[in-house]
Specification:
single chain; 188 residues; alpha/beta; Rossmann fold; five-stranded parallel sheet; 9 helices; 5 strands; 59% helix; globular; binds adenosine monophosphate
Length: 188
């Protein structure tokens, strides 16, 4: 039985984060907290909150920090998280979100932040070769730019508190997953 993990997973759009998160959830049995999924569910339900979120999302913009931080704090407070651990996917996306997360859980409340590193030119090629509803060129570029400008500072911030590991995300899903589990298991 794999140990309970409390992880943050970073990776730019097209880095294979979705695939790897699914595999990690299967292995570690953690609660998958994907802020993108939570927001898309709210949009699908047509709540007022969902309508507001949709305006940001469809333009390829980030939802404001104070909004998403509240959503994540609420989810982290549920009992399944304490029991099974968590895998945060798509959050934090700014340094303010990262600091709020650590302020909420404490330094010891997070095992590791893992950055699945795939170079920009590689993800551009990957995204160009697929056909997804949220892949219109302008929104893709905005998300990639936001990742560099806003999310990379959050990634680096985890480095300053000694919680960051980098994993090479170029290669087959199986290879990348093996690299991930090796670093995660060796840090637990
Ligand atoms: P994702 O599926 O993680 O790419 O999220 C889809 C969209 O939801 C993003 O492009 C953002 O508009 C919004 N979103 C998801 N997570 C966050 C977050 N942590 N902060 C701000 N906006 C977010």
């Amino acid at each position: 039985m794999a140990r309970r993990v409390r992880l943050v997973i970073f990776g730019r759009q097209g880095a294979g984060k979705g695939t790897q998160c699914a595999l990690l959830i299967e292995r570690y049995g953690a609660v998958h907290i994907s802020t993108g999924d939570i927001l898309r569910a709210a949009v699908a339900e047509g709540t007022e909150f969902g309508r507001q979120a949709d305006a940001y999302m469809s333009a390829g913009n980030l939802v404001p920090d104070e909004v998403i931080i509240g959503v994540v704090q609420e989810r982290l407070a549920k009992p399944d998280v304490a029991e099974r651990g968590f895998l945060l996917d798509g959050f934090p996306r700014t340094e303010a979100q990262a600091q709020a997360l650590v302020a909420t859980l404490g330094n010891a409340g997070i095992d590791l932040a893992v950055n699945i590193e795939v170079p920009l030119e590689v993800v551009r090629d990957r995204i160009a070769g697929r056909n997804r509803a949220d892949d219109n060129a302008e929104a893709v570029e905005r998300r990639l730019q936001d990742y560099e400008d806003k999310t990379m500072p959050a990634v680096r911030w985890f480095g300053t508190i000694g919680k960051l590991v980098e994993v090479d995300g170029v290669g087959s899903d199986t290879d990348v997953f093996a690299r991930l589990t090796e670093v995660i298991d060796s840090h637990l």
